[in-house]
# Entry
Amino acid sequence: MSEDIMENTSGVEMYVAFLRGINVGGRTFLKMEELKKAFEALGFRHVKTVLASGNVLFEASRGDAAALSGTIGKKLREVLGREVVVIVRPLEDLRKLQALRPFEGTTAGMRLFVTLLPEKCRDISSPSMRDGFRILSVSDGMICSVLDERPGVGAVHLMGAIEKEFGPRVTTRTWNTILRILRTGDAD
# Structure
């Protein structure tokens, strides 16, 4: 691993790497054991994959998440032979999001999503509603949104609209996946 990333001046931190398009839609298949080995080859410690959709918990020296994303992306290009969008967040950012209770007040029949952006973005002053989904908040590089469960409206519509608004270098997870990542991270 490059020295600038592993330089340890202020301790270590748990991070989560979110990889776009891994093992979904038949596009990029990657065994989780191979993914774990790729992260370990970079010198990361306590590497755990969560589900099979490209979520990786790992420990690294506290540093720049964007630099970690670049290092991981380069390694995955070697392993997969193609570029994969990699977004890294400190696990603590997800804990802070959970503490905000972003989906409080949602009702049964709504699917809850968190979209991760490569960098912090503008906040929105009021929620927006489009084609059966609503953006609840945008801050700190994360978009919290809900999707009404009704015929003809699916997650593909939600992700398409978010990509149109924020660009294609994003990745989306269900709130249940985020909660599972947090439980896995807290299990240590």
Summary: The chain is about 35% helix and 30% strand. Residues 96-175 form one domain.
